[in-house]
Amino acid sequence: MSSTGADTAADFVTGGTGETRAPTPYFLGDVAGPLGRDELRRLDAWWRAANYLAVGQIYLKDNPLLREPLLAEHIKPRLLGHFGTVPGLNLVWVHANRQIRARGLNAVFVAGPGHGGPGPNACAWLEGTYSELYSHIPQDAEGMREFFTQFSFPGGVPSHCAPETPGSFHEGGELGYSLLHAYGAALDNPDLTVFCVVGDGEAETGPLATSWHANKFLNPARDGAVLPILALNQYKIANPTILARIPEPELLELMRGYGYDPHMVSGDDPAAVHQAMAATVDSCLDQIAAAQQAARTGGGARRPAWPMIVLRTPKGWTCPPVVDGQQVEGTYRAHQVPLPSARTNGTHLRVLEQWLRSYRPEELFDDAGRPVAELLDAVPTGERRMSANPVANGGALLRDLRLPDWRDYGVDVPSPGATMHEATRVLGSWLRDVTDLNRTNFLTFAPDELASNRLQDILEVTGRNWQAEIGEFDDRLDPTGRVIEVLSEHMCQGLLEGYLLTGRHGLFTCYEAFIHIVDAMFNQHAKWLEASSQVAWRRPVASLNYLLSSHVWRQDHNGFTHQDPGFLDVVLNKRPAVVRIYLPPDANTLLSTYDHCLRSRQYVNVVVAGKQPQQDWLSVDEAARHCTRGAGIWDWAGHNDETGTVPDVVLGCAGDIPTLETLAAASILRERLPDLRIRVVNVVDLMRLLPEDEHPHGLPDREFDTLFTRESPVIFAFHGYPWLIHRLTYRRTNHSSIHVRGYKEMGTTTTPFDMVMLNDLDRYHLVIDVIDRVATLGPRAAGLRQEMVDARLEARTWTREHGEDIPEVANWAWPS
Asked: Which parts of the sequence belong to the Xylulose 5-phosphate/Fructose 6-phosphate phosphoketolase C-terminal domain (predicted)?
């Protein structure tokens, strides 16, 4: 870093592997800019204090204020953390605070660079929020010692921003989502400003590269603002970043191409960078205010070129410039721990002490270890502190949705199978009115699939959010629309997460096969929910609700690439406390299920439902009871058990097409084997199959045994991969008698029934399974078994000859 004054003898030492040099303490020179000398000194003091606290978190477990010479026993045995990006984060934070105080901003902070946790942690401690939320970490010397010790320490806090981090609603464990979370927070938050720092390594990820387009969905009349700051510190873990190595004009043109007005701040002299940053943030916020004012007074219908900042500073700015003869500051070697052997290497230990003292902590903390008055006076008050803003603890702001009674939208079902509906279209009529009743806190997200998934009724009361050009032949695009459709599952997921985590509600509808694109994003969000549930001051947020349609069994027209129900397997890897999976078999059960999901908190709800015309099985009242049970016997479909005898076979099913095929198989068995005692069990809530000690919805063993019996064979038709049912039921008494049919990775472009036949889920194969597994049938059912084999062959031959399903299947209905 640039500094004034010559190196002194204490600035470097030479070890066995080469020179190791400590940073030289700097003193601010006179640099022209908007900051007066006193204000510049106060901003820099805050920045030095935050940097000092960040270094302390990575290295120290004792002697936090260096009141005695630094010894090896003061150093943590395992040095974990990342310093490289922290000075840039702290710089943005202190300049955001300046604006909050000057303009009365309502602002939050998103730290995109991975493992930048020491920065926001330090700022929260300086602002006093940390001590308010964690009373065992007061704002004094002892609190500082505890604050340092807990970082990346067993039983402590992570190295990245996490639920434990005051003021954070962005999980820093995986890169790529910071800008989406920032824009999601700004939607429907008209007075909010989000300072979002985007790491230049993070900017190489697919989700972040697409995220720049989120500005096309920000309405300056009704939404808040995002100020992206691209932290161009030039290196990732071991390589330079692409954006740091392209010519600056090319970078700025790239940002202009995304629709931004880029501003450049660069340098390594603290005084110059402070002055440039102050002037640039002033200019950017003036632009934002002007755009919002124009839009809110009717004078600006066009999408503005939103400002953004490119901040180019050295990697590991202010750290030791040379370690063991190798350049560290300004290189990839500053990414994590610049002095990796400070506990065991005497040279590293001495340079670490000089590094910490270069921030001049004696000027920043008083004798008790509290920040000096000059630092405390620079802190915004109350909830204006970014570390204390309730927007970042969205559950504190969450308000219940106004939900119309779903029963009023149910379809009439005079008897099972007597009517047919597209389940998701029926749901869409209810969601239309949910949207209309909740115009400031409910959004629907879809990757260009709203109408394809039959939810187009929502567009009767709103349009598709669109801030770009609208053409003559476009369909219901509207700058005030409550639906965001963009052909990026990453964008839909990230925007919804940001919206939910800041206190609102929404849903994400997607083709089932392509929800896998956001597997990692789902993982991170589920982990956030798991961790935040353990943080006492975090309030529950609205659940993340998926509606997966165009599913595996009705993607026969699109083919093999569109056929994958495996997201359910991914979801079940998460802790039971936060995940739910629902497979409603018809329209009324889908309505009941989704009403429950939109009322829930702190979960990820996955609902899979078909969009094609399908027979209705349950009335509104029956659907309500069945969904409340989660799993239950459909007496009308099986043997009328008046004698209390145990069924010869249980036909289990979960999912709309498996339910259809199960019922068709049951009708064949009832007609051809009238003495066979059949029980049909439908499962809506997949978690009911788990034992009660593994999931809150799990059935006790006694209830499971009552439902599925302890000894009867169970033929289970499942929507997804068969082994998932075995995974859920492996501890049950009769697990060895459970035989599952499901998707076996057999798919192509074919007819709907041929698709289920390819995977042996069809009605004829289910009948064969019953004959093969019910010992009492034996040879007396051999004729029926052969008929079923022949029926499969006939159905396949018909399909190959006619290009459609055989009429007896296509026109089948439950016998009245």
From this structure: 611-814
